[in-house]
Predict the 3D structure of the following.
Amino acid sequence: MPRRRSGAERLRSALLWWTGIALAVLIWHAAARTQPEYVLPGPRTTWTALLGLIRDEELGAALLLTVERGAVGLGISCLIGLPLGWAMGTWPWLRELLDSWVQVLMSVPPIVIVVVGMIWLGPTAGVVVLVVALVTLPLLTTAVRDAVAGVDADLLDMARVFARSRAWTVRRIILPAVAPPVLSALTVAVGQSVRVTVMSELLSTTTGLGAQVQQARTNLETADVFALSVVMAGLTLALELCVLGPLRRRLARPST
């Protein structure tokens, strides 16, 4: 069980995190000064473009559509991948049977899934959901599979020797061991789902953040492209800071 960090350690970690963000913005500003705005707009130009998108009242609707599609795709992936990974980690024969499927799915480029999805479903939002689900599914499945298979066998043997129930064993031994790596994989999956959702929208739909990126690219509005990228990054960071991070810390607390 990881040691709980003191308040000073948490403050230091937060300061370093925000310092990293500030450093990235400074590097961006310095690089932008050497390039024309249509090639690399700076932070100030990007901020102005972002305010313009907000004033146009189209950004909110597009963001909501993108979040909804990404959440549905990731939700489907979790509903399938988490129990499947648990089963594969529990029964070696099932792992050996399905490992090849997982490896094949991990090797298929997302752009191929977009093309196939458009053939099957046409240029609809269903393509976006399909791509997000299939891209994040192998990541979650393998994370749960490896975490369950890696639970300390000695602890499981002790639970059997002391005649602990299956529910107690799952709650006190398996879940504390499985939760941290699975939540880390879920963090990666959330970031992937945002990127894949936008890419799929760009190629297959006329709505959402991806469609706005495509429109800005067509009009050579590079600042709008950067502003939309900032929105995507902010969405991922907000999910990490407000949902996934607190959940990881809660699960890391010693149980009573």
About this structure: The chain has a mean pLDDT of 87. Residues 166-204 form the longest helix (39 residues).
